[in-house]
Amino acid sequence: MTQHTEALRERIAAELLAARDRTTRLTTVVDEPDLVKQHSPLMSPLVWDLAHVANQEELWLLRAVGGAVPMHPEIDPLYDAFEHPRAQRPSLPLLAPGEARGYGHEVRGRVLDLLESFSFRETPGAWGARGQAGFLFGMIAQHEVQHDETMLATHQLRVGPPVLSAPEPGPAPADAAALPAEVYVPGGPFTMGTSTEPWALDNERPAHVVDVPGYYLDTTPVTNAAYAAFIADGGYDEPRWWTEAGWAHRQRAGLTAPLFWRWEGEWVRVSFGVPAPIIPNEPVLHVCWYEADAYARWAGRRLPTEAEWEKAARHDPATGRSRRYPWGDGDPTPALANLGERHLRPAPAGCYPAGAAPCGARQLIGDVWEWTSSDFLPYPGFVAWPYKEYSEVFFGPEYKVLRGGAFGVSPVACRGTFRNWDYPIRRQIFAGFRTARSAPSADGGR
């Protein structure tokens, strides 16, 4: 048994336990009626997520890795995300809260037993064979924390007394007010995606070279104050700032401000049941792609492409290589990024200077998901793994890519190559954005 194998085993156990701790917190702060209630047709009842993460863990780890006999095969269809849309899930004969918890506890106990005795295949490189069992453990850890983020969004939509709390992020650092509005990213090729990150998902693969012309990118995400100026200037009433589809949606949905904002003589935002005046230098949150795109047009700018976002976040011009994160290859820490539900809101713009990218941009990881202009499409050489429904069925112009991760994203499911996607109308997700502009000359010179 090698030291590498034991380290992998310990990391998997730690990530699974951390994910379950967060799942437990999100599902024990409310009573049973709240767990079974559908707080929005956009979201599942919390009790569905609770049993779904256990069912996926059983399917992929106990059955696929461990070869176990199905525990409760009759419930598999109930927790198949593709078989039942979210709006229909409350009508299903779901496990009651106690049953869901018991199921999850039993599955987790068996998985930890499997992990303790499992003999990992030794393979060359960080990825090795696509069937490497370590990946499937990592996939399940990421799957659970992604549902934790979904459940956090359900809590934000929930109506009732506040039940979640966390320390506030610290103030912006002393140099934040003096930061330039934008940073320059020189043109040229860089390596996008990965072929070596052990737990990278299929849509992040393979690594490939992309030539990106020079461009300018906002140093920080767009703030509440900047977005409020767009509103005050009639941004929601002027069709010329919106795409045709965006303007139709704005009219149809009656959009006048970000979700959870309301005007009470000043802009107030409701955050997990608590109303408070917006914080001017905090990144704007809960805007859809159409709103982000309209703001960018109003500002005389545009949304960055996905490749531009990743080059800013990962490319190190001093070495020519792509880092795992803006700050380097080391895992995130509280000094580098706002992740893991440590806070329940974004930190002020300009925070985390130690987490800045080589280009000078800050907060590319954590705080808010950032909309890009790109459709969600496969990379050249993409291979679906371990099932096509994870990514492949979503490829196309219907979905826009988001990057960077928000305050509610766990570090295990957030890295410089991680790709998120959603419909351009979605606002319940923890999404903001930053804007870009092309460099004036073809060679990217200033």
Task: Tally the helices.
Answer: 9
Biggest sheet strand line-up: 10-9-8-11
Topology-level CATH name of the largest domain: paralog of FGE (formylglycine-generating enzyme)
Shape: globular
Task: Kindly estimate the percentage of residues that lie in beta strands according to DSSP.
Answer: 5-15%
Poorly predicted runs are 122-131
CATH architecture annotation of the largest domain: Alpha-Beta Complex
Q: What is the H-and-E element order?
A: HHHHHEEEEHHEEEHHEEEEE
Q: What is the CATH homologous superfamily assignment of the largest domain? A: paralog of FGE (formylglycine-generating enzyme)
Total number of domains: 2
Supply Rg: 22 Å
Give the end-to-end Cα distance, rounded to a whole number of Å. 56 Å
Tell me what you see in this structure.
The protein is α+β, with helices and mostly antiparallel strands. Helices cover 30% and strands 12% of the residues. Helix 1 runs parallel beside helix 5 (133-157), helix 3 runs parallel beside helix 4 (97-117) and helix 3 (46-65) packs antiparallel against helix 5. 44% of the residues are buried. Residues 122-131 have low confidence and may be disordered.
